[in-house]
Amino acid sequence: MRNMGDYMGDYEAKQLILEVGRRMYNKNFVAANDGNISCKVGENELWATPTGVSKGYMTEDMLVKVDLDGNILRGGTKPSSELKMHLRVYRENPQVKSVVHAHPPVATSFAIAGIPLSRAILPEAVVQLGEVPVAPYAAPGTQEVPDSIAPFCKTHNGVLLANHGALTWGKDPMQAYFRMESLEYYALVTMYTGSIIGQANELSCEQIDQLVDTRTRLGISTGGRPACQNVGRDGVPACVEQKRCGGQCAHGGQQPAGTAAGVEMEDIVDIVRQVMARAKR
Ligand SMILES: [Zn+2]
C-alpha cells in the first residue's frame, strides 16, 4: 500500500491518466478536446495530458512530463495552458498527487450561475466531496485562473470555475476523477430537487456533524462543511431552531487534508448508512 508521501511510478501514472481520460470523455464530462488530467510521480515532476487531443482516445506516447514550473522534461507534445491550474494546486497542497479538470454539463451550469454546491442533501457527498465553492471568473490561460483557485486547495477537494467548468484533486488519478463524478452527481441532484421537484429536505445540523465526524475518523480532512440551512416553512434554519450549532453552522469550516490509506468506498458507504440509521432513530 502506498503511503501519503510515496509517488506512483511512470507507467502506473500514465495508465491511470489514460483510463481517467476515457472515463471522463465517455461520461460526457468533456466535449471534443476539452479537459486535462495530471499525476505527480515525484516531488517536482508530473505527467500531464497534451493540448489539442480528445482525452477519450489518448495513447501513452501523447502524455508529457513536466516539472512544477511547467518546463517539459519528457514527451514531444505540448501541455494545455490550463496546466497552470494543476501546478498551482500541487504548489498550494503538497498532499495532492493528481488533478482532474473537466466541463461536466450540470456542474458547469452551476459554475455559470455562480451557485456553489453547498447544500447538505447527500451523505456521500458530505463525506467524500464536501462543499464545492465557486472560484471567481478568470480569463482562460491567464495567471488569474490559478490565483482564483489558490484559496481552496488546502481546504476543499474541488472547485467550480465560474463560467468555465470544474476542477477536482486527490491522492491519485482515480480519487481525483471519482470526486469529479461525485461533483457532477451532486450538481445533478441539486438541480433536480431545486429546479424540477422544487423540494429538498436538507440534513440537519446534527446529521452534518455526524457525517463530518465520520469523515474525520476516515482521515479525510478536506471538504469544508456544508451549511446547516434546513430552512423550514417559517424560513428559520434548523440550526437556529436547535440552538446547538453556535457559530459552527456557517460553511467554510476547515477540516484537516488527505484520505486514510486503505479506506474503500464500500466502507464509507457502510459507515454513512450507519450514521443515517442512528440519526433517524
Ligand atoms: Zn477548461
From TrEMBL:
Q: What is this protein called?
A: Class II aldolase/adducin family protein
Tell me where in this chain the Class II aldolase/adducin N-terminal domain is found: 15-191
Q: Which organism is it from?
A: Anaerotruncus colihominis
Domain of life of the organism in this record? Answer: Bacteria
User: Which Gene Ontology terms cover its molecular function?
Assistant: aldehyde-lyase activity; metal ion binding
Which InterPro entries did the record assign? Answer: Aldolase_class_II_sugar_metab (IPR050197), Aldolase_II/adducin_N (IPR001303), Aldolase_II/adducin_N_sf (IPR036409)
Sorted alphabetically, the keyword list is:
Lyase, Metal-binding
Task: Please name the Pfam families in this protein's record.
Answer: Aldolase_II (PF00596)
SMART domains reported in the protein's UniProt record: Aldolase_II
Signal peptide boundaries: none
A GO BP entry is: pentose catabolic process
Could you give one GO CC term from the UniProt record? cytosol
